[in-house]
Amino acid sequence: MELDRSVPVWPQVAADLRRRLDAGEWEPGERFPGTVALAAEYGVTQSTVQKAVVALREEGRLRTVLGAGSYVQH
């Protein structure tokens, strides 16, 4: 995915992750990739990915378990 660096990046990452979730890349209940892996994949910082994950969690798409990671809700 090509990121437009002239605008905030985390909403772009969140939108792409949302698209991938909608496409069924990860099944409900499946562990979502960690911030380190996603940051490397997108070529961004972990804090950028964390902001995207928080947005998805607030939408109810992910559930985060402290110390265990994030899981796909639906």
Automatic annotation (TrEMBL):
DNA-binding is among the record's keywords: yes
Superkingdom classification of source: Bacteria
Coiled coil: none
InterPro entries named among the record's database cross-references: Bact_HTH_transcr_reg, Tscrpt_reg_HTH_GntR, WH-like_DNA-bd_sf, WH_DNA-bd_sf
Keyword list, A-Z: DNA-binding, Transcription, Transcription regulation
Keyword hit for Zinc: no
Domain HTH gntR-type: 7-74
Pfam family, one: GntR
Gene3D superfamilies: Winged helix-like DNA-binding domain superfamily/Winged helix DNA-binding domain (1.10.10.10)
The protein, known as: Winged helix-turn-helix domain-containing protein
